[in-house]
Amino acid sequence: MIRFDADEIALLAQDLEDAADNAPERVRTVIEKTRHDVVRDAQAACPVDTGNLKSTIDSDPDPDGLGFEAGPTAEYGAHVEFGTVPHVITPRDKKALHWPGAAHPVARVDHPGTTPQPYLLPAFNRRVGVATRAFGRIVSQPWPRDRSG
Fold this sequence. Notes:
- The chain is mainly alpha-helical.
- The protein has one domain.
- It is built from 4 helices and 4 strands, in the order ααββαββα.
C-alpha cells in the first residue's frame, strides 16, 4: 500500500524557501573569502623589485557582495603579468635619455621587451576553483533542518 502525506510536501516547500533565503548570504561569505584569498595569493606570487607593485594589490567588493575586482593600482601591473613586446623608448620632455651607469645620453633605446611574470591570474584561477566547489556544496546541501528523524 502507498501512503501519501501532504505534510511532507509542506515541509519540503518550507525547506526550499529557507534554503533560498540562506543561499545568498552563504554565497556572499564564499565570495568575500575568495576576494581576500586572491589578494593574498597574488601578493605572495608577485615578483618583487622595490615592493611597490605588491603593495598596490588590493580588491573592491561589488555593492551587492556577489562579486569583486582585484588587482594592482600600479600602472605597470599588467606589463609584469603579461610581459611586453619589444619597443622603442624615447624621451618625453628632453632631447635624450640618461640613467645612472649609462656611458652617455642616448636619443632612443630599443627595449627587448619583458617576459611575463604572472601573479594575479594564477591566484584568481586557483581561488575560483575553490569557490566553485564551495558553491557546489551550497547547492547540494541546502536543507536547513535535519530530516533524519
